[in-house]
Protein: EKC/KEOPS complex subunit BUD32
Amino acid sequence: MSTEIISRVKEYLGEDFPVRLISQGAEALVFETNQHPFNPEVKTEEFIIKYRPFKNYRHPQIDKTLTKKRTVAECRCLVKLNNMKGINVPHLVASDPYNGYIWQTKIGEQLPNGTFSSLKNFLWLHNNDKDAYLSTVEEVLIKVGKQIGILHNNQYIHGDLTSSNIVLQRDANTGIWDAYLIDFGLSGYSTMVEDKGVDLYVLERAIMSTHSLYADKYNEWIMQGYKESFDNQDNLKQVLKRFEEVRQRGRKRSMLG
Ligand SMILES: Nc1ncnc2c1ncn2[C@@H]1O[C@H](COP(=O)(O)OP(=O)(O)OP(=O)(O)O)[C@@H](O)[C@H]1O
Structure:
């Protein structure tokens, strides 16, 4: 199946177009390339191509409509976020919603152990070097919280806030890590505190399940950054109240199995 999809992508981009498959999720295949979609002069950047393939379990017409709708929604969100002050996200480069393609700038780099610099891998890397890296981890997690806070303050929600969808990249001048959010397939405009509470809960659970040893400290730092990014304390209070309610619902659900 995936070989067939990859040949379709090759056919679409051209046989000689250099792409490398880096991820295959439920919804999309993600490739990386160093070639710009339409400007061969751009030589210094790397790009991500996200492709939503045809799903043969869906009626072809419904599939086309859904693919187009989801691709357009993700692009719209990226464009909005590209113009939002203070938020770190990939730049939208090009898109072909009819065929399910989105091109965006690549975020991230290799960590010293050779893994990709997602927050998840970063925390794994520093899991055993607690003392030496604690302040770096604290700084990074406060920045992560700030990014989520800025997003929520602008009435946007992420919708799939896991530690794999947060990517770290060093500032080119200072060498200091910055936090970026990626994957806006389930994101959108929302004024509802419930959606924001769920975003926070999903990330809290993700941190607890993959980095259980220091999860409490990590979540505390994320929430410190989140709180610092709010100007309006009433809004913050409402979100935090709902976050607690979402947590309690989650606890009840897991007790009931
Ligand atoms: N702009 C980007 N820069 C760097 N890596 C990226 C970028 N976009 C996606 N990736 C990589 O590809 C992976 C999958 O991308 P994304 O989450 O957008 O697709 P998805 O199909 O929604 O995946 P999943 O089903 O796993 O959530 C990411 O976890 C990340 O490793």
About this structure: The pocket of adenosine-5'-triphosphate is lined by residues 22-23, 25-28, 30, 48, 50, 90, 104, 106-108, 116, 160, 164-165, 167, 182-183, 185 (CB under 6 Å).
